[in-house]
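Hi again,

Forgot to attach this to my earlier email, sorry! This is the prediction with zinc ion bound. I've pasted everything inline since the attachment limit keeps bouncing my files.
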Amino acid sequence: MGSKVSNHDYTASLVPTSVNFDNKHVFSIDVEEWFQVGAFENTISRLDWQGLESRVELQTQKLLSVLRETRQTKATFFCLGDVAKRLPHLIKAIADEGHEIACHGSDHKRLFTLAPEEFRSDVLNAKNALEEAAGQAVIGYRAPSFSLTKDTWWAYEILANLGFQYSSSLYPIQHDHYGMSDAPKTPFYPLGNSNKSIVEIPMSVCKIFGRNLPASGGGYFRLLPYFIGKHLFAKAARQNQSASIFYMHPWEVDPNQPLVFDAPLLSRFRHYTGQRGMLDKVKKMLKHYQFGSMEDVVLAPLVRHADGL
Ligand SMILES: [Zn+2]
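Structure tokens for the complex follow:
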């Protein structure tokens, strides 16, 4: 426990590029309310959450029907334990459509605000609530706001002990709120080659003019014109010879959500810009690429590869 990673040799623990991801990519959705986001963390207190309008169900249903329409059979939904406790039927509805339920923590506390023991109970609580609601095992985890970094590397050991088989918590970019720019860009074993119980599946980046640019959907995809987002996504897959990971949130397709006027200007810009056009852009991506869940697109080929198949 407490192991930092400063001298870790990532290259030794990379998943080999010979693993065949079948030209498929991962579609993932972080299921949280409009008021549970990192951008409003200093503006809206957790104590006030209860009195705010819940809109996550409506927007998640919207995304479920888009997935149905575009015949994408499976996606991974990283859900908050809080959502599972308040709306267990929503988690069940997602699972019943054949999608994978994964864990986004209990109430969006970023890892560096938690001691290892607090993190453990935060994640365990969420995992239990999700499994109970979904009726399926939860084996995937994504840290709130990609807050797994060198300083919180201890989280991997805890996740592995709790039965998680993968994490998708690193964004190998430089960003003011998150990111670990020197992290590997393709799946790797964060506990080293001698312990492959958990694999990290980092968000996709693509290198242009020596810089790692975010290529995984989310806010950048919403803010930039569609053709740029699509170009970066495809280029990342080619450069990394790996599946690309797309992610988004239900609140990004909700232009009618309540406005948080007293949040900082930059936070408001990042949160609200492009919401009106987001759903159409997402539909185009879903029509253009073949997507699947983390389990299907990344984990299953890894298992096959390990078995020599
Ligand atoms: Zn989140």
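Residues 10-15+23-306 form a domain with the TIM Barrel fold (CATH 3.20.20.370). The radius of gyration is 18 Å.

That should be everything now.

G.
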